[in-house]
């Protein structure tokens, strides 16, 4: 008989992680791999599997307790084994032992034994909460020698396509994904044989996820499963940011069920202890969603007929081209916003003559700093100030239809046109950043967008969006509100125009502004004040430092 002290494994750097479920009791017989407890961090819930078969002799953690790596979890009594010490470090300098490995729930790599060669598992990294993400391209083949940073696959989420790079170098011995596969965080992508590494304890795992059963907390989907013919929006899309939603309390089985049914857990009310979401809650939510829109749409008589299908080949040669996923989802998002949000667009001009002179004056300094300053960072800064001045623009409509969610942070998205489609990376805390910082971030985000390097987190948490067509042309346009935000600023090309100064016409550089807003949240007078304020700040950028 042997006593095995099972400890908490590496939790991917998370501290004070909550025990949300005990899966065993004292006296239970557990098999290797059986779940012992379920932990929940801000980002994921995870089951800790048993490293051994045995009988639970004592449990050291209770539901609701918090724990850290190395904490005593429970004691197992196993037959025919020596006493087993808690987990020890598995570096190459240590002599790896079965017992040491046994206290780790599920190793993410095969630790090299008296050698520096190892087979490493490459897992799908954090996809910003997105699940069932489609692999649209596989960039490597089995047998390839790959270097750290090489693209392994390209995946496409609701918001962007992105390349997933190799996290170490070596020979790709097995590829576990193919084009069209649907992947989640933690899925096995590939096995890589790394020979001659100086440090065999180094893992290629992108995020040091403790076990294979880690489930990313699903963020609110960008596109909920709503047909374009929905009734007037009674439940606006939840802000896809975990910060605003708070933690979702649900076990892995509930999360899996929600994924299978396409239910957005951020919108499900939990009836379990401490508001925990149960399977019944997911079923009730889905049932309600299946009934409600049909009934209300029909009642409102607002079902919109699809245009009839037309065979265009009768008029000439045609070609059927598949839309990219981003393109399809952008189309759905635009339709949903256009149909649900009562849009109004306020047009105005900002006199940027002095701003432009200042911008030209700092061109040399910008070059020295290795950056470039366009009018956009000034627009961002001015909008951030306007959002502070007019907080009614920095809200989202709550799902209950009775509240507004007032945001006290100022994150602004910038629409970027890429060959793969329209994406909106979000710049954080714009009100706290300098023009230099914003210029650098715009360039970085624009380049990431065009090179498919944006991660979902880069596109979440926006309060307001700027869509700038200023480098292209046009005098005005009517941008569509990027729900759940309530306003978007369209910027067109600045042009010299004659302005009357009271005694004569003067040539002034005028930048056209087109502010579209959700008339449920904002009234017309506020919109006119907002653009007038932008005009004031941009015409005399000393206001930007006030
Ligand atoms: N009026 C006049 N000129 C403008 C201007 C404006 N409103 N906005 C930008 N410009 C000028 C810039 O000053 C720059 O000229 P200089 O080199 O002489 O200074 C030139 O246009 C090009 O600017 P840019 O596009 O490189 O940089 P930006 O900061 O304006 O935009 C980014 C950055 C990432 C938004 C841009 O690269 C991009 O992708 N633009 C596409 C716009 C788009 O797709 N919008 C979405 C439409 S939504 O359907």
| Tally of helical runs | 10
Helix share of residues?
A: 10-25%
Question: Which CATH-level-2 architecture of the largest domain?
Answer: 2-Layer Sandwich
Q: List unreliable stretches of 5+ residues.
A: 82-116, 197-245, 294-301
The proportion of strand residues reads 25-35%
Counting DSSP E segments of at least 2 residues, the number of strands comes to 28
Query: Which class of the largest domain in CATH terms?
Result: Alpha Beta
Structurally, how many domains make up the residues? 3
On the 0 to 100 scale, the average pLDDT is 80
CATH topology of the largest domain: Chloramphenicol Acetyltransferase
Radius of gyration: 28 Å
What structural category arises from helix and sheet content? alpha+beta
Most strands sheet: 7 strands, mixed
Q: Name the CATH superfamily classification of the largest domain.
A: Chloramphenicol acetyltransferase-like domain
What ligands are attached or bound here? oxidized coenzyme A
Shape: elongated
Task: Give the terminus-to-terminus CA distance.
Answer: 74 Å
